[in-house]
Batch of 2 targets.
Target 1
Amino acid sequence: MQPLPGIVCHPNGQAYCTTEYVSAEHWLRTTWQGFVSPADAEQGALAALGVLQEGLAPCLLNDNSQIKGPWFDSVAWLQQVWAPQAARLGLRHVAHVAQPHTEADLGAVLARDPFGNYFEVQVFTTPEDAATWLRECQQQDTQGAGR
């Protein structure tokens, strides 16, 4: 992985959100760790936009599997603020790895398809399953472009 300017830290210097370009896969990967407050989530998501601005890939693997603490609902902010900007920067597919034991909550929220106007989102329980889906999206995008 090639590091880009997408590392966000708590005041104590501990990173809680890292966004990097995975050159072997041609996608971005955002990894969240530890306790992440709603304000932290917004800061991390905004940092990811900075990496998206590099124009490297239309796919994002968003990994929340290492988050500790309560699940928070930032979908409204993501839908109103983040998603329009991410879509303008070329984001087309988001594979979201849910925080353990929150899959049902997140699935219920995403069943309303809040990002359908911007990009496709699928929820997974493992990074491996998320990666498999992103590879399938890339293959479909490639086949569609070749027509």
Target 2
Amino acid sequence: MKRGLLRLSAVALVAAAAATSACAPTQTYNGFLPDRNNQEIPDPQVGVDTRDTVVQRFGSPSTTAVFDQTAWYYVSSVQESVAFYTPRITERRVMVVRFDGDTVSGVEKYGLERGRLVAYDDHETPTRGRELGVLEQLLGNVGRAPPVQLEERGGRPNQR
């Protein structure tokens, strides 16, 4: 009896360990995260660094300014998901490197606290006309007579 209880508790312990480890969050890294590999890369220095040195150190930017190439944006984020739940962003970093000609004129850093939520409208654009319901689609032609077909030569209806 004691042995059966010991086996049952061992099975329960293994099941509990498996259940808790199955719900461990997984992290996904997007963008450039220099300190993820325990490398601390110094920020670009104003007046010292150029476009070439910034590209060598950080790689190509995530995006640039739209109309003029005076600002480069480096965006990185960490996303965490647990089981089947919707993933959530736990960390986001944005580094903006501004240039005056080819030299760095300013460096700004932003975190997740400065982010803004953008609400996208995923509805469809309405079209003119009437939408038919399921019953109207199924029973729409009931009671309608087939079109009358005329002979090519005589102009009389076909007699079949």
